[in-house]
Design goal:
- The protein has about 425 residues and is mainly α.
- The longest helix has 26 residues.
- It has a three-stranded antiparallel sheet with strand order 3-4-7. Strands 1-2 form a two-stranded antiparallel ribbon. Strands 5-6 form a two-stranded antiparallel ribbon.
- About 50% of the residues lie in helices and about 5% in strands.
- A hairpin with a 4-residue loop joins strand 5 and strand 6.
- The chain contains 20 helices and nine strands.
- Bound molecules: (2R)-2-(alpha-D-glucopyranosyloxy)-3-hydroxypropanoic acid.
- The site of (2R)-2-(alpha-D-glucopyranosyloxy)-3-hydroxypropanoic acid (9WN) has 10 residues, from helix 2.
- (2R)-2-(alpha-D-glucopyranosyloxy)-3-hydroxypropanoic acid (9WN) binds next to helix 2.
Length: about 425
């Protein structure tokens, strides 16, 4: 008899384990990534709670003195990935990148704790001040415009989605000098960001490196600064979860409550009245991206979604066969297999479903779970999928797809509730 999907998923987590931290997938992504690791922890919590906490602890070992949790931790050199530590040059130990990634750690830590409170009591008490420092960093360095902003498309975790096109148009990528990409040696180039994207990604890194990763300077004068609805929704939800954890630990959480209030007010800055949803906005020019993709669907994470907004979102979802697309299939720039310019990402669906379930939309949450599960069952534990025909894309044996299978997609409705 063959192995069950659950067994395969657990094996993927174990085989991507590099000794306390988990890589997203062998070859393409050989280091520890910030939000991938938090999802890995959630996955581990279904069969090894101790290992789940270790994953988060390793990630926070790389936290900067400023509170920032970097987006990549370069624990061991690996020539298979570009740009590596020699490009970022952060002067930290361990070497890391110089930007962050969506702060899902508090959201997932709370779920991990809920699953096995006894196993997590001491671990969360030790982690709490570090989580608090990272949230304070987000408030201090990324939220001064009201909503949460990103200083590099990689910071959003949704690298080349159309949301960043207006900000990327301001970036001069013509002077970055020669370099060799590694991603296209692992995955078909047609599924990856373009060379023009990479030139600009590197120009933004070069600016950060040039100012010694001074975050005030990067926000003030860096080549790219965009407000991100997805990050704003995630951060509101993460603040709420952190406050709940803090209250349980007997802490005063009024500072966190203040951040939640400020961010919620900040949402008004990214309301695109023409589109009728929250939308990415270039903070240098004020221009909206005018895109409707999975970022807008994360609204459910931060609270209830009015019926007219829900109708607009669901109309986009109805254009696909397999889950929520990273960009609207009805838009002329939709590319169903090019990374974040259209594909469906199981891990993002899992986050959206958390919001849907909490908002009492278990019908939509179950539809999303079933469509995600169907694509993974048919195609394997890939990084992402073509939302129109379910073709598995990107890296195989992917950690976060295995993790969300074990915690969500592979559970039926009764278990998930
Ligand atoms: C840059 C690891 C990461 C994810 C991101 C995803 C992709 C990296 C890349 O892979 O980004 O951070 O090189 O393309 O976009 O969400 O965390 O899985």
């Amino acid at each position: 008899m063959g192995r069950s999907m659950d067994e395969i998923a657990r094996d993927i987590l174990r085989s991507n384990d590099r000794g306390g931290y988990t890589i997203p997938t062998a070859g393409l992504y050989p280091y520890q990534w910030n939000w991938d690791s938090a999802f890995a922890a959630w996955g581990f919590s279904t069969f090894n709670p101790d290992r789940a906490w270790t994953e988060l602890e390793r990630l926070f070992e790389a936290q900067w003195d400023t509170g920032m949790v970097p987006h990549i931790v370069f624990w061991k050199p690996d020539p298979g990935y570009f740009p590596g530590p020699e490009v970022w040059r952060t002067a930290t130990h361990p070497p890391t990148s110089g930007i962050s990634q969506p702060p899902v750690a508090a959201i997932l830590a709370r779920l991990i704790l809920r699953a096995d409170d006894a196993a997590g009591r001491e671990r969360i008490a030790a982690l709490y001040p570090k989580l608090l420092a990272s949230h304070r960093w987000w408030h201090r360095h990324r939220c001064s415009a009201g909503p949460a902003a990103i200083t590099h498309p990689w910071e959003s975790g949704r690298d080349n989605c159309p949301d960043w096109d207006p900000g990327m148009a301001n970036v001069d990528g013509s002077r970055v000098g020669p370099y060799t990409r590694r991603d296209t040696g692992h995955v078909d180039a047609s599924m990856r960001p373009t060379k023009a994207d990479y030139d600009r990604y590197l120009a933004i890194v070069q600016f950060g490196r040039g100012c010694g990763w001074d975050q005030d300077e990067i926000v003030r004068n860096g080549p790219f600064l965009m407000a991100d609805p997805a990050m704003t929704f995630i951060l509101i939800r993460a603040h709420r979860d952190l406050a709940a954890i803090g209250r349980d630990l007997g802490q005063d959480v009024s500072e966190i409550d203040g951040w939640i209030g400020a961010l919620t007010e900040g949402l008004a800055e990214i309301w695109n009245a023409d589109l009728g949803v929250h939308d990415a906005r270039d903070l240098r020019t004020g221009a909206f991206a005018n895109t409707l993709g999975s970022g807008a669907f994360l609204a459910w994470l931060s609270g209830d979604v009015p019926p007219e907004v829900e109708a607009r979102l669901v109309a986009v979802w109805d254009r696909t066969r397999y889950g929520i697309p990273s960009a609207d299939p009805g838009a002329s720039n939709f590319e169903p297999r090019r990374y974040w310019r259209g594909p469906m990402w199981p891990v993002v669906n899992a986050l959206i479903a958390l919001g849907l379930a909490d908002a009492g939309r278990s019908d939509l949450a179950e539809r999303l779970r079933a469509e995600t599960a169907e694509s993974i069952r048919a195609g394997g534990f890939n990084e992402y999928f073509d939302p129109m025909d379910g073709t598995p894309c990107g890296g195989a044996n992917f950690t976060w797809t295995a993790a969300i299978w074990l915690t969500w997609a592979g559970r039926d409705a009764a278990e998930v509730a």
